[in-house]
Amino acid sequence: MELLRNLCSVTFFIAALCVVSYGKQQQCSNTNPCSNFNGGEPFIEPEVLESDNGHLFVHLKVEMTEIYVDWLKLYRRTFNKKLAAPTWVVNPGDTVHLRVSNLLGPNSANQTGHNTMHKPNTTNIHVHGLHISPKGISDNVFIEIEPGQTQEYLFNIHSEHPAGTYWYHPHFHGSGAFQVTSGMAGLIVIKDRAWDLPRSLRQCSCPRRCQHDINMLVQPTLQYSTDSIPVIYGEMQAEIGDDPLFRNDQYIIPSGQTLSQWLLNATNGVNYFTVNGQLHPTLTFRAGRMKRMRFANAGGSHSLELEVTTSSGHPCEWREIALDGVYLEKPRIPRANQTLIVPGGRADWMIKCEYPGTYQIRSIVKSANNPSMGNFDRFNGLIATIKVVNPYSSRWWDFPSYLPARPQFLPNLINVDENNVEKFIYEIGPGNTLNRELFPESGNLIRHKMRLGSIQEWTFVNAQPSFLHPMHVHVNHFQVIRYNKYTGPIVWTDRQAGQTFVRLVDQSGKNCEYQWERYQSGQQPSHNVQLPPSINATLGHEIRYQGNHGILGYAEVGDYRETIPVPALSNITIRFIPSIFTGVVVTHCHNSVHTDHGMMMLAEIVGEDASIDGARVSVNGSFAGTCHPGDWYPGMPSLPTMTHTTTAKPINFILFVNYMLAYHYTDLAEYFLRPEYYHNLYIEWRKHQHY
Prior knowledge:
With 691 residues, this protein is an alpha+beta fold. Among the domains are: 418-637, Immunoglobulin-like, CATH 2.60.40; 638-691, no CATH class. It has a six-stranded mixed sheet, covered by helices on one side. A five-stranded mixed sheet has the order 1-4-9-8-6. It has a five-stranded mixed sheet with strand order 12-20-19-14-17, with no helix packed on it.
């Protein structure tokens, strides 16, 4: 009997060893990858750095960091060795003293240059969404911090700056997208004054209830598979010339492939966003307890289409309260019952779940929204889990009936007289062009000038037939005014004999006489085309915006934003008042891959009495938004024009010409050719004449 017991013990011991050995063989690692990622750890906040006595001192070190996401070991460029960099918490009127030390190694010698992905180890900082100076060592995105260098920044936050959610990230032209996708990002929270908040919001917000104020830095950390086009991180590493050791080429898996090849394989499904550096973290709420959540889409190219799901039959209630750092007038249920956050955008929620259970915050792509979202890259997957436990014992707070007012420099501009605005147009055109060109490397880079205090009316038009672009404007937020009928040119692609040609055609299919910079007259097709039915199906955003189908890709008229989705073949009017700060204003697509490839343009804010001469309005005689002679900017009123009969001339025409000779003589010749592009000067003259 004793012998039998001993034999059984040995047998069980051997079996246990086999199980342990088998488990070790099956353990997921860089040399034995698994297609399933678990995640789900308890939610944690990034490190918080809070100002003291009006100042915040921050030191960010840029360096390669070994990080783990579940079983996967990665090598990433980070701030301070964290996927989610420290959150800066400051007050209006504070000063942030920032030191950035670039501890990365030298860039490789084989660099491709301007408007390409290059110089992966050169960096800088952009404080995204802040109303702040773009000059000097403030929010100047043209600063270059080379490997081994240290740069000081000084951010003076205006005393009336809107409290809200913002973020910071690199913005070097050529590696911004790569570094953001790598993980170089952090939140900025400008604190509310407690007495400005309605009671129920005060009970779940900083400065008094910070434990209920939740920061969610959502990053595209694991975008490797083809589902994550155009931000396939492994391909970005190859394109920018990253070190093969950082690309996981050194890990050989059982199939004989490298780990980098396995990550790129779509069947393995490696396409995940993280929150504060965590994969699918789990938050714990008390039932009935109101929370505030601050979401930032710190991604390069994919939209988030957020909602809260549950299988329990008892949904959570949530409302949008702020977008891009600016409060709404009151909490609202969003369009299509989802919150759209385009790359770079932010959204603040108030949320309560009244019943215990398990809920999920997911980004859900719905085909019903395709008419507005088009072929834009959209993340479809889990963001975080909410576990709701025992009911909150105190009073159950409801959503407030109002929210803090906007500052005075963000007034309602919807009903401003058309004669009191200065107009400009941004055209999204072929490839990565804005206003018919890629971002120039030299020469006159300023395309538009504006004075402090003027009312700017800009029109975003998207000539691309299928792709939405999220357009971001630095320095000043803008108000969404209206969606207009799109009457402009259409980007058309011809494919002949294995070659691809791109040109602009009008909406009847005729070749545009005004073309973009790469069109080669006489060397590529110019015949009329039969436009497909999809063109008419895409048009009509001004009508669709008013409906209830396919509407997710629109910003609400009246909202203040600094990043706005511009759907394919759309025409959107925005207005803003340049206030407080002069300097260069960068406008670009916040699909940051597009930005690095040239989809960026510069305007300039000058003083109230300074000249607005010298901006380079046209490109090679071609004006944005036009197709044929006589086309005008969308929505622009008529100006006095040259005519051949005396009786047809406006009475005031000679007076206007004299004014042009006196104050803007360098523009007079071009005025005779294209008078509609000098609408701003005409308005200036009318004011001078007291019309």
